[in-house]
Write a structure and sequence with these properties.
Blueprint (H helix, E strand, L loop, with lengths): L31 H20 L10 H12 L5 H12 L7 E4 L5 E3 L11 E8 L13 E8 L9 E6 L2 E5 L3 E3 L29 H18 L10 H14 L3 H13 L7 E3 L7 E3 L3 E4 L2 E4 L3 E3 L2 E3 L4 E5 L2 E2 H9 L7 H15 L4 E7 L6 E9 L18 E3 L2 E5 L5 H5 L2 H6 L2 E6 L6 H7 L6 E7 L1 E3 L8 E2 L3 E5 L9 E6 L6 H12 L3 E4 L9 E6 L3 E6 L2 E3 L22
Parallel strand pairs: 19-20, 20-25, 25-26
Antiparallel strand pairs: 1-2, 1-6, 3-4, 3-7, 3-22, 5-6, 8-28, 9-17, 10-11, 12-13, 14-15, 14-16, 16-17, 18-19, 21-24, 21-29, 22-23, 27-28
Length: about 575
Amino acid sequence: AFGDASIEVAGVQLLVLGSALEGSRPPAPLDDRELATVPATGRLHHLVRFFYPSSESLSAPWDALLIAAIDRVVSAATPAEVARVLVETYSPIAPLLRVGTDGPDAAAFPVEMPAIPPHTHSMQWVHNGLGPGDPRPGQVYASVRTVLPVNEHPVPAPRRFTLAPGLWAEFPLALPCTAEGQTLPAAQGSLPQPQRPLSWRPTGDDRSVRLASVLVAWNTLHHFYPYFDVITTDWPAAQTAALGAAALAADTIEQTRVLERLMYHLHDGHGHVGHPSVTPGRVQGLRLLWAGDALVAAEPFKSAEGEIRPGGVVLAIGQRPDDAITRELGSRISAATEGWRRHRLLAAIAAEFNQPTSTVRVRTGDGEPREVAVPAIPLDQFTHIQRPVNLPRNGSQVAPGIVYFDLVGADAAAWSQHRRAFAAARGVIFDVRGYPGEAGLQVLRHLVPGPVRTLRMSIPRVTLPDRENFTFNPEVFWNLTPLQPRIAGKVAFLTNAGAISYAESCLSIVRSLGLGEIIGQTTAGTNGNINRTMLPGGFVMIWTGMRVLNDDGSVYHGVGPGPAGPGARGT
């Protein structure tokens, strides 16, 4: 439940089944055979899941099915046996699926395809982004099966897909169906389940679950991520490395890091993988900032072991040199700009050293380095935003006639208290070094000279695998109408690398319409609504599911609207 909810329980019965970890497969390296068959299994699984529109697919237990398929293919001795296992696994969902091998021992399963019954309509998947099949009002992304008259849209011939060298699968991308949408022929047989004890639950402690989580993450992004034409990455190699690491990972914590390293190769500021059990309740109690390439203390810290002054340079934490820390943690942060990676690193460092006490080696000025014990603090007491600590009050003058307002987190009510003073000011500084509240949009409406349409956002429309004929739905624009009173003075927007998404939407409008100067650092270069996918084992993956362009049609991703963006000025 999201928001307030109440639950009434009529009765409870508890039955002890045993350990949830009982029967989990232990870590073991992938051998050469598995390096071919496991990715092939993941590829077929997602081809069927995303592009075989059978009625049976709507209720399929996809995670359990993939885990069961992995269990079986890793034991298959020959390519023909792999093909047979795959068709037996997925034919209860995809009765028109055929899997086969090439070469001297060529084989195909099933040997004979079932006959197609008489039909009047055809069915195919249309993905507007990757979303639920029953979208609710306000849902941005939706995956829907579309029923079409067969005389206008006949069922195509089966299409062949390479799964691995010498291993292929084929099925039609549209299916025969009735006018009511029941696909034909009806599937036969039951779906396999992971061969585990009754008490077992899929967690990161199981090898097949870890492999499955990599396959779901990689294949989902392979078919739906909208920026592979912009970023430079070897995505297939990233899958190989992640599978190898997942096979050897010991538990959910290590698997989270495996998935984070996979997301690194996506170069997406929204890209992130997390797990509820890995979220720390406490973090290191020393707030850090960047000073060039050095990590420095942002605030004074005192303890019985010594003190750390603001600006003190951190040389090591817990016997790990600072460059080794930033290099290792940086390899687990997905970012479209290096500035956003550095911004995220500050929080990652705090979360990494969450033990009751960590030793920080620090140097202040020209003094000798010394070690100070820093305790952990509750997460809700920690602020990692890369901004000064003592900011001016909203509505205060920082120079004669120059008024300051912090947009980060500010709602419309906070803005309404001061808007008339801003309209009369000689100059205004808006602080966007972070994520604005509702006031961000309100301010823009006091700046635009008339109704405007800006920001080019669009959702991928996916009907074919492998981003073939990757198209986008009609663009969605922001429509702004002006509000009174107008801000007539000079305007500057102060920003930094921690500005992402909605913050960049506001700054993009400023830049495109010339509403003020943008001053500060390059922003995160990441915008558009996020998409969210659950992975086997309880992992959650978020990523940018929408394409955003600059108003002139140029590339936005990895560039952003900060001072480094086209047409902007600032330092």
